[in-house]
Design a protein that fits this description.
4-stranded antiparallel beta sheet, 4 helices, about 50% helix, alpha+beta, Alpha-Beta Plaits, about 130 residues
């Protein structure tokens, strides 16, 4: 019985090995290729994707938002910061994080200094290549 299992396992591995060495030929419709090219062009015109930002401030006082913005810029000059006005509030958000894990790491870093902050789903800018 054990010999039968061993022979069966070896037979399966031989089949996998032969399948790995075979070549794949892709036959595609030229119409499909043109649709893919159109999709690439459309996406070039949309420089944002879904992601996350960290909101440091939300309030109706523009001076407070600018003061916090200047303080943050001095501490983190390389971080991107956005001052957004959504009537009647000014919102100060930082970062362009593609996933929640990246945002969470920075959230823990900024929370020590800035207290009550939030991770906000937002449209973010694509990274520069």
């Amino acid at each position: 019985m054990k010999k039968a299992y061993i022979v069966l396992i070896l037979f399966c591995f031989q089949g996998l090995f032969l399948a790995a060495q075979s070549k794949v030929k892709i036959i595609s419709d030229p119409l499909l290729d043109s649709l893919v090219a159109q999709n690439i062009e459309i996406n070039k015109g949309q420089p944002t994707v879904d992601g996350y930002r960290i909101q440091l401030f939300s309030g109706s006082e523009r001076n407070n938002a600018n003061a916090l913005r200047n303080k943050f810029k001095q501490e983190y000059p390389d971080e991107t910061i956005y001052l957004i006005y959504q009537q009647p509030y000014f919102k100060l958000r930082v970062g362009d994080y593609r996933n929640h894990i990246e945002a969470q790491q920075m959230y823990l870093k900024y929370q020590k200094t800035y207290g009550q902050i939030l991770i906000i789903p937002d449209k973010i800018n694509l990274p520069k290549l």
